[in-house]
Amino acid sequence: MMTLEKINTLLAALSTNPFYRNKLGGLTSVSSLAEFTQKVPFTTKAEFAANQKAHPPYGTNLTYPLARYNRFHQTSGTSGQPMIWLDDPAGWDWLRGNWEWVWEKAGVRAGQAAFFPFSFGPFLGFWAGFESAVALGVRAIPAGGLSSENRIKMMARLRPEILCCTPTYGLRLAEVAGNARELGVQKIIVAGEPGGSLPEVRNRLIEAWDAEVIDHHGMTEIGPVTVGDLNDPSRLLVRHDSYYCEVINQDEQGIGELVLTTLGRHGSPILRYRTGDLVQPDKDFALKGGIIGRVDDMVVVRGVNLYPGAVEEVVRSVEGIAEYEVLIEERSSMAEVRLRVEGSGTEELENRLREVFSLRIPVEQVPAGTLERFEMKSKRWKRIGPEAR
Question: What is the pLDDT of residues 107-119, one digit of tens each?
Answer without folding.
Answer: 999 999 999 998 8
